[in-house]
What we know:
heterodimer; A: mainly beta; five-stranded mixed beta sheet; five-stranded antiparallel beta sheet; 5 helices; 30 strands; about 10% helix; disordered N terminus; disordered C terminus; B: mainly alpha; 6 helices
Amino acid sequence: MPAGRPGPAAQSARRPPPLLPLLLLCVLGAPRAGSGAHTAVISPQDPTLLIGSSLQATCSVHGDPSGATAEGLYWTLNGRRLAPELSRVLNASTLALALANLNGSRQQSGDNLVCHARDGSILAGSCLYVGLPPEKPFNISCWSKNMKDLTCRWTPGAHGETFLHTNYSLKYKLRWYGQDNTCEEYHTVGPHSCHIPKDLALFTPYEIWVEATNRLGSARSDVLTLDILDVVTTDPPPDVHVSRVGGLEDQLSVRWVSPPALKDFLFQAKYQIRYRVEDSVDWKVVDDVSNQTSCRLAGLKPGTVYFVQVRCNPFGIYGSKKAGIWSEWSHPTAASTPRSERPGPGGGACEPRGGEPSSGPVRRELKQFLGWLKKHAYCSNLSFRLYDQWRAWMQKSHKTRNQHRTRGSCPRADGARREGHPLQHPQDTETVEQLQTKGSLLWEVQQTPGQSATWWSVTPASGQSRGRLGDISHIPWCVTGEPPSLGRFCIKPKVLKNLADRFHGFNYPTRVDGNYK
Amino acid sequence: MDLRAGDSWGMLACLCAVLWHLPAVPALNRTGDPGPGPSIQKTYDLTRYLEHQLRSLAGTYLNYLGPPFNEPDFNPPRLGAETLPRATVNLDVWRSLNDKLRLTQNYEAYSHLLCYLRGLDRQAATAELRRSLAHFCTSLQGLLGSIAGVMAALGYPLPQPLPGAEPTRAPGPAHGDFLQKMDDFWLLKELQTWLWRSAKDFNRLKKKTQPPPAAVTLHLEAHGF
């Protein structure tokens, strides 16, 4: 194969007489015919084939040094000699090869098919590209950090990627304004991702898709339509601090700062907190943290280290009611609850049950519990009413003591009772206000005439905590008779359900407000 | 210059032209400084570092090319690789090189090698491999700058780009992929040999510019392939 060699004009006069071979400009890269080294040619050169197809190849020796003929030539594929029965001599200077049912290429740079002379030296080579056309990419998800950029991620289709190099190209266009654009910054958050840094329009949906191309063909994902404003996310809240709440041994206070981007773009934010014990992998999630930047976790174990993370979801962007995309969780912050100094109150009756996550307002749970209680109590015609402290205040004027018909006690159903105390009459002098100042949810158990009403106060297990319902929905509560000698048990709201499940045949009442009859 | 769009050789020419016109990095030494010693030492250290970096890059790259390229005793014919600057040199010749020539040969060799390396058209390689290659090119650029610094400190002029240089594309069959793989193989091999040789070059320079308190014997062999 003849090749031109650039002449000595390429050298500079200033260059000292070279002792080394002439240095030529590297731009000249075409292969040179060495002195007879390259004397064969493989055909086809660099073919692209489907997996499972066959290949017929030939190695033609020409030029000619000393008797190079097709005799003695052999093939190797990826360094391994091929079985002689696959080759045959076509004529004096050509060796043929027949390969069937090809496997996918061993490396994406192509399988190396080489024709060797009898002495093993390489005469010629050809790269085989065997693979599959790409499959449709799918699962495109995109988000915008600050409404000016967009990052998208997708999943490649199953095949085609492994054997042949597959090029992915993310394209986007405004829905009604035809021009296709291509994303340029790839691999920003993983191998199949792309980042569009600017020139994005708001208020008009974008159509986004991914094209996968390789030597054997191309595939196009489904089109994703989205509006930038619907996929806004922020960085996680910075400066998350977790600290103890005075000496309270089962509470921690979490404080954070709202992400700065929110101020710039007039978002509101809702937050989620999750926490776990140091050596556990189960996270408990607190969902109802609206747009405050602090929250108190309660119902924790004393003397334990907790890890806490917060994340943020911007919403209310330009007045829309739609939520954005949750940010990443902030870096875990750790804090420990103080060690417990005294035994649990009530002589051991108050132990919070296992680690069930407690979500949902305690009001509902307790109502459900009392509904169950009513059903299984020995006495009939119990009715419960739930008051929170404010309603109790208002109810005071309506409620008269007449409603407390004292007629004797009505023992609780065995399953719920943890201690065998008989119920007694509450003191007549107990007023709603007195009970109310304890900051508790009040329950009135109204029994049939002739029976005494039993007041039960439901308080947070740890004592006097005042807080809104949302703050305290996940802590254990104790149901205490008034006076306490009536009996007391503590239970986590979620556990109520489990308790009830143990008593088969029970159906929770479905009404969560109003009275249970 | 043939600069058809998509013409890789045209782009290569552009790159090479840019490379030649890069201003020489001024020597680290300023006036009243301790001489070229520190920058010679630095250049020596750089060659060792690059040697180490190349070892892992070459391993990965040859695996990407696939067997037989990554086999230890692989020895294909040198075809297009004749244009590569060769580090191999006769021992006496090497010993007798004067400082200026020694430095010039190093500088020119790496300029060309860097140019070839940048032209490595491996669009199909993994992103990680491309990153490693880019990183190595940057380090090699640093070595070039370091050599230029030594030359400036010793008062030697930098070699100028060759005038009238033009990329020519030899007519005939296109450069097949397998031939390209062989070129890549020899490029890496030549780079390895040059780095090995440069360490010796700079070690020798170091001893010449600083008369050593104790005599150190330099062991050398000329290396072929």
